[in-house]
Design brief:
This protein is mainly beta. The protein contains one helix and 20 strands. Strand 17 and strand 18 (228-238) form a beta hairpin.
Length: 262
């Protein structure tokens, strides 16, 4: 009989399991704050356990709001982190600042260059989150995305490389990152000229079915209203589907050249 009563007491003390809120990201040196409502029964609070990378947190969670101190786990900036907030049935806690685990762009460029073969290399330090480096090339009075390289996202120096496709004449490249703030962080621009890349020409002057380039090139075609109707990288463009009209052509390092589609 005594054994049965002890078993019943154990069952009563167990929390009514509803679910787990999981927050994942990279350690940025800041703590999480959690809004913690009362349980559905009105006795005690909703959250009954918090773990950080599967270690049970020792923070005081029996309050309407509490802080998860992420500095207690020997984490380094940029380390992967998973926080699990286990809560009772009939209530839901709210993580007030989950963005503190999202990667931020903090990189500094130590060195960057482009080899005669067109290999763009850069060395970065002070990274605190995995974010892609977007490689951009200055073309047609604007920056055009030409590729992407994933960042390592941890402190220390990391070297990256990307094979560029230059146009004729002087080229200008840079890398950038965009984090959750939506603000872009840029490297300095680096210039490069490949003497083996010849000036590209196109024909015929009044095309009907296609435009032919003397060599493969990035291109854009705009209509009279500034809308892009064709873009890509090729040595010819199929324009059969375009209506008869005036168009503007960007290619190689040239922009704004016009043609009338027959």
């Amino acid at each position: 009989m005594r054994t049965a009563l002890l078993s019943l007491a154990t069952l009563v003390c167990l929390p009514s399991w509803a679910g787990v809120i999981v927050v994942e990201g990279r350690y940025q040196g800041k703590n999480l704050f959690v809004q913690n409502p009362f349980s559905e029964a009105g006795v005690g609070f909703c959250v009954f356990e918090v773990t950080v990378n599967d270690q049970i947190a020792t923070d005081e969670i029996n309050s309407s709001a509490f802080e998860v101190d992420l500095g207690n786990y020997g984490l380094k900036l940029g380390d992967a982190i998973t926080v699990k907030i286990k809560h009772k049935d009939g209530c839901t806690p709210v993580v007030l600042n989950p963005e503190v685990l999202k990667p931020k762009s903090t990189f500094d460029i130590v060195q960057q260059s482009i080899s005669p073969e067109g290999l763009y290399t850069w060395t970065a330090t002070n990274e605190t989150g995995e974010l892609p480096y977007v490689v951009e090339q200055k073309r047609w009075n604007k920056w055009v995305k030409v590729g992407e390289v994933m960042g390592v996202g941890t402190p220390g120096e990391h070297k990256y490389e990307f094979k560029v496709t230059p146009h004729s004449g002087e080229n200008t490249f840079r890398v950038k990152q965009v984090d959750m703030t939506k603000r872009s962080r840029y490297s300095e621009a680096v210039k490069f000229t490949d003497p083996s890349v010849a000036l590209v020409t196109w024909s015929p002057p009044k095309p009907k079915e296609e435009i032919l380039f003397s060599a493969a090139t990035l291109y854009e075609i705009y209509d009279q209203y500034g809308n892009i109707v064709k873009r890509g990288y090729a040595n010819k463009i199929d324009i059969a589907s375009l209506k008869k009209d005036l168009y503007y052509l960007n290619y190689d390092n040239k922009m704004g050249e016009t043609f009338i589609k027959r």
